[in-house]
Design a protein that fits this description.
Number of strands: 13
Pfam families: Peptidase_M20
Organism: Kalanchoe fedtschenkoi
CATH superfamily of the largest domain: Zn peptidases
CATH topology of the largest domain: Aminopeptidase
GO molecular function: hydrolase activity, acting on carbon-nitrogen (but not peptide) bonds, in linear amidines; manganese ion binding; ureidoglycolate hydrolase activity
Structural class: alpha+beta
Number of helices: 13
Bound molecules: zinc ion
Radius of gyration: 24 Å
Largest sheet: 5 strands, mixed
CATH architecture of the largest domain: 3-Layer(aba) Sandwich
Order of helices and strands: HHHEHEEEEHEHHHEHEEHEEEHEHH
Keywords: Hydrolase, Manganese, Metal-binding, Purine metabolism, Signal
Strand content: 15-25%
Protein name: Ureidoglycolate hydrolase
Shape: globular
Distance between the termini: 25 Å
CATH class of the largest domain: Alpha Beta
Number of domains: 2
């Protein structure tokens, strides 16, 4: 579940991104690349600012879209819920089977497969200069409950097929190419998103936290990982950390999660920024009472405080000045939650995101202040900011990952 605004932008991009785009297009274009007046080539040239040197006409770049679709459908059958939904939770039986399926596909494509201690899977195609840092591409295959079959999967299976395409065309890369399947992009089981990639990026706070981490059934992270065949050395996951410079570039192909490109009829876009999330949890505590007995001037209604804050979230987000600022009140719980009882407690969780960290933090600050102002109306208040915030201050999760790989 990656988050990006999905909007086309006109900023000029570096050569590296042009290379990314080329690889993406290999995946998405089930026909031969050739004609000079190809509009896609023109877009790529305009976007990158570099001329495109097309492959020689003898090189046929043709995606086997039928078998790719078949693989996507087969992978979707490893699910805890019936089709068309997909539920694949980290280290579950279906996750292990799906991992086996991916590793087999990688081997069938001639890739050398290795796994690290948390189950990040790497399929490598050695280039003619294998000492050069490889180009990595990939995504995740874990799936939140009742999700679809494309999220993440396209980035893994698409990458394998891209390599198949290049092989069929007789291409031999200079740098090695690596398909990466990241472990646990979704936080479903242990409440930690991008678990595998963050460990790859060397986040030692996470490595330590995992020693104390358990799921909702009190199964520890280590026990769960071991049941799936990983984490044999309980005391040390630092072996997962990558050295800086391990990759020369990284590309992730991902479905659009919003409706913008689809509505505009655009088949592909390039992510130029990632909306970093931050969340705030607020607990209001007021006075309960019987809905029929306590008159309005005497009330101290925690539910109304939460409602006021929800509206304040919308106001502050809309006033940010950017369409890229979003805010969501996804959780609002009232206690005791009876129709004839004045809420004595209200719990509200707010998610805010923006591609601009400073702007997003201003919105958080205003929400925070609104919560305090509302609480001055005789309510007690407790505010906690999500742990995500810590990562955000160092850049978005994905950017942090990318940065570490590329430095
Ligand atoms: Zn995803």
């Amino acid at each position: 579940m990656c988050t990006f605004p999905g909007r086309r932008r006109e900023e000029s991009m570096g050569l590296r991104f042009f290379c990314y785009l080329s690889l993406v297009l290999l995946v998405w274009r089930p026909f031969e690349v050739g004609a000079h007046d190809d509009p896609m080539i023109k877009i790529m040239e305009d976007f990158s600012g570099y001329p495109i040197h097309e492959p020689s006409s003898s090189m046929s770049l043709s995606v086997d879209s039928q078998s790719l679709q078949k693989q996507i459908d087969e992978l979707a059958t490893f699910s805890d819920t019936p089709a068309p939904s997909v539920t694949r939770i980290l280290y579950s039986e279906n996750d292990v089977l799906a991992r086996r399926y991916i590793k087999n596909l990688m081997r069938n494509s001639g890739l050398t497969v290795r796994e690290d201690a948390v189950g990040n899977i790497f399929g490598r195609w050695d280039g003619s200069q294998p000492d050069l840092a490889p180009v990595g591409t990939g995504s995740h295959i874990d799936a939140i409950p009742y999700s679809g079959k494309y999220d993440g999967v396209v980035g893994v299976l698409g990458a394998i097929e891209a390599i198949n395409v290049l092989r069929r065309a007789g291409f031999k890369p200079k740098r090695s190419l690596e398909v990466i399947m990241f472990t646990s992009e979704e936080p479903t089981r242990f409440g930690i998103s991008c678990l595998g990639s963050r460990l790859l990026a060397g986040i030692d706070v996470l490595e330590k936290a995992l020693k104390r981490t358990a799921d909702g059934h009190n199964i520890s992270f280590y026990d769960a990982a071991r049941s799936a065949g990983y984490a044999h050395n309980q005391e040390d996951l630092t072996s997962v950390f990558l050295k800086k410079g391990s990759y020369s570039a990284f590309l992730e192909l991902h479905i659009e999660q919003g409706p913008i490109l689809e509505e505009e009829g655009v088949s592909i876009g390039i992510v130029t920024a990632i909306a970093a999330p931050a969340s705030i949890k607020v607990d209001f505590e007021g006075n309960g009472g019987h809905a029929g007995a306590v008159l309005m001037p005497a009330r101290n209604d925690a539910g109304l405080a939460a409602a006021e804050l929800a509206l304040a979230v919308e106001k502050h987000v809309l006033e940010s000045g950017s369409i890229d600022t979003v805010g969501t009140v996804g959780i609002l719980e009232l206690h005791p939650g009876a129709i004839n009882s004045i809420p004595s407690k209200a719990h509200i969780e707010i998610d805010t995101r923006d591609i601009d960290e400073k702007r997003r933090n201003q919105v958080i600050e205003r929400i925070h202040n609104s919560a305090l102002t509302i609480a001055k109306k005789h309510l007690d208040i407790m505010i906690t900011q999500d742990a995500n915030r810590q990562h955000i201050q160092h850049g978005t999760r994905a950017n942090a990952r990318k940065k570490q790989f590329l430095d």
